[in-house]
Amino acid sequence: MPLQVEGGFGFIITTGKENCLFASSFSSTRHLKGKMAYPVPSQAPFNKPPIPFTGAIHGGLQPGTMITVTGMVPVSSDRFQVDFQCGSSKHPRADVAFHFNPRFDFFGGYIVCNTLQNQIWGVEERKQEMPFSNGGTFQIMFLAQNDSFMVAVNGQHLLSYKHKIPLSRVDTIGINGQVQVESISFQNSFASPVPASGWPSAPLYSANSFQPAMLPSGPLYPANAAFLSAPLTQSFTVPYATSIPGGLYPGKMIMIYGRIPPNPTRFQINLKYPSGIAFHLSPRSDENAVVRNSFINQTWGKEERSLLGNQMPLSSNQAFTICILCESHGFKTSVNGQYLFDFQHRWQQLQQIDQLEIKDNVTLTSVQV
Question: At the top level of CATH, which class does the domain 26-213 belong to?
Answer without folding.
Answer: mainly beta
